[in-house]
Design a protein that fits this description.
Layout (H helix, E strand, L loop, with lengths): L1 E4 L2 E11 L4 E8 L6 E4 L5 E5 L5 H10 L1 H19 L10 E4 L2 E9 L4 E5 L2 E6 L5 H27 L12 E5 L6 E4 L4 E5 L7 H13 L8 H10 L3 H10 L1
Parallel strand pairs: 3-5, 7-9, 10-12
Antiparallel strand pairs: 1-2, 2-3, 4-5, 6-7, 8-9, 11-12
Helix pairs in contact: 3-4, 4-6
Length: 247
């Protein structure tokens, strides 16, 4: 992939190397620089810049050598993100929650039939006891998990027909909280795991993650062929991924 920056042509590619603990995906940009520069961004991206004279094998090995440094940086940024996101909610009127890319305001009402519904950009939480914070949290989390299940499974069913001709069986879909990945695929066991936090992202971003993980049943790496495969089926995948990384 080539992009223009003012009058200079800069070449970039997305690469992946297998470290001792996990696979590390990074974006390599070829520039007129003397040294190899490695940067870990707040959104989890690993950016590397190097001159065209440096072989990719050398850069891949350097990434492997820097694995501990990279993972520590990712863990630190993830912790900051979690501290920011995991502010204890009181579940009172006016609190905001992000659902499918939109910030919705909470409205708590008292009622016999306890429920959670979205109406006119508001989350209406009906509870018997307005002062029972634990019960309000239980209602919210139960509703949210059910929403995650419905949205994620339906998107997987929507994407699956693209892969059925390859003889791939519909996978087991698992949902859990993950620190550094939006999703993962285990082709040998027929399992796709999706990050529960994806429920905060727009549908198009979730679709990209689902397609990305399904594609690993065919290409079990992040090679050029892998991204060519994705591009043919989702031409705007880069825009979706960029929006996802902005969180």
């Amino acid at each position: 992939m080539s992009v223009k920056n003012n009058h200079k042509k800069i070449n970039t590619e997305i690469r992946s190397v297998q470290g001792r603990q996990c696979a590390l995906e990074y974006t390599l940009t070829r520039k007129s620089v003397k040294n190899i520069n490695i940067r870990v961004k707040l959104d989890g991206r690993i950016l590397v810049s190097a001159s065209k004279s440096v072989p990719v094998d050398f850069i891949d090995n350097l990434i492997k050598q820097k694995e501990i440094f990279i993972l520590e940086a990712l863990k630190k940024y993830e912790q900051k993100s979690l501290e920011k996101q995991n502010t204890i909610n009181d579940y009172i009127d006016g609190e905001q929650f992000k659902v499918l890319g939109e910030w919705l305001q909470l409205k708590v009402v008292q009622g016999i039939n306890e429920s959670v519904v979205i109406y006119n950009k508001e989350i209406i939480l009906t509870v018997n006891d307005l002062n029972n914070r634990k019960r309000k949290e239980e209602l919210w989390m139960t509703w949210l998990k059910e929403l995650e299940k419905n949205i994620f499974i339906n998107l997987c069913k929507k994407i699956y027909p693209l892969f059925q001709p390859y003889g791939i069986e519909f996978p087991i879909i698992k949902i859990r909280s993950m620190k550094t990945m939006w999703g993962s695929c285990r082709p040998s066991r027929g399992i796709i795991t999706l990050n529960s936090k994806l429920i905060q992202q727009p549908i198009k971003c979730i679709e990209y993650v689902v397609l990305h993980e399904f594609a690993h049943f065919i290409h079990q790496n992040h090679s050029k062929e892998f991204y060519n495969f994705i591009e043919k089926r989702m031409p705007d995948w880069k825009e979706r991924k960029n929006k996802l990384n902005q969180r």
